[in-house]
Amino acid sequence: MDNQSVESDLSIWIHHLETMGRSLLDLHQGISGKTESEKQIATITELQAMSSSTAAIIISHLGGKDLLARLGAHSFVTDDTHVSFTLDHDNPKGVHVVSISTEPNGKFIMTGHGRMKPGYLTPPVLERAIVDIPDNLATVFGSLTGIEILRHRHY
Asked: At what angle do helices 137-145 and 53-61 cross, to 10 degrees?
């Protein structure tokens, strides 16, 4: 892995960790002990609170709020050029956190991270993809995680 990739990963994770304190506290206080449908409603409410138009575009191209809630996505972190979230359910490729960044040239970089390992400062990067067309985000998300319903999704 080259230095630019490492620096990019570190900046994404620093941003993610800065806002994760709030997300983890909300998750612990608001989601633990809830039924699956209550978790989905909490995720949809969290997504509706996002104001970034880039985040809204990314969420819609991933399949929408309802689909992401059913897949167990939560702890969303967004800004003008970035969306990341944690997947609550296991998936075939072991992706735990997904981060999607927009580039100035209009492309998207989607990265799938595994779970944190003892002795490391950042979780391992399991998969990374560059997406040229926003309509392909759901398909790439499916390939990244191994979730079949997304890999064959057509709009």
From this structure: 70
Nearest Cα residue to 70 out of 36, 111, 21: 36
The pLDDT value given to residue 122: 86
Residue-range definition of the domain harbouring residue 113? 3-151
- Summarize pLDDT for 1-45 with one digit per residue, the tens: 555 555 555 555 555 555 444 444 444 444 455 666 665 555 555
Number of domains in the chain: 1
Q: Tokens 């960790």, residue?
A: 17
> What gap in Å lies between CA 60 and CA 125, rounded to an integer?
24
Averaging pLDDT over each range in 16-20, 21-25, 65-69, 128-132, which range is the top one?
128-132
What is the model's pTM? 0.66
Report residue 96: phi and psi, to 5°.
Answer: -110, -35
| Nearest CA-CA partner of 68 in 102, 44, 34, 99 | 44
Place of tokens 């994770």: 13
Q: d(Cα 39, Cα 134) in Å, to the nearest integer? A: 27
Q: How far is CA 49 from CA 21, 37, 59, 135, in A?
A: 18, 19, 13, 23
C-alpha span between 105 and 103 (Å, rounded): 5
